[in-house]
Amino acid sequence: MAADRPPLLLPVKGLGSAKARLAPVLSREERAALVLAMLADVLDSVRAAELAAWVLSPDPVVLAFAKEQGAVPLLQGSGAPSLAQALEKHLPDRGDAMVVLPDTPLVSPEELGELVVVGTSAGSPAVVLAPDRSGQGTNALFLHPAGAIPLRFGPESALLHQAEGAALGVPVQVLRLPGLALDLDTPADLVALLRERPSEHLGRRTRLLMAHLRLKERLAAFRSWRWPAPGPRGGSSAAAG
Question: Tens digits of per-residue pLDDT, 173-189?
Answer without folding.
Answer: 999 999 999 999 999 99
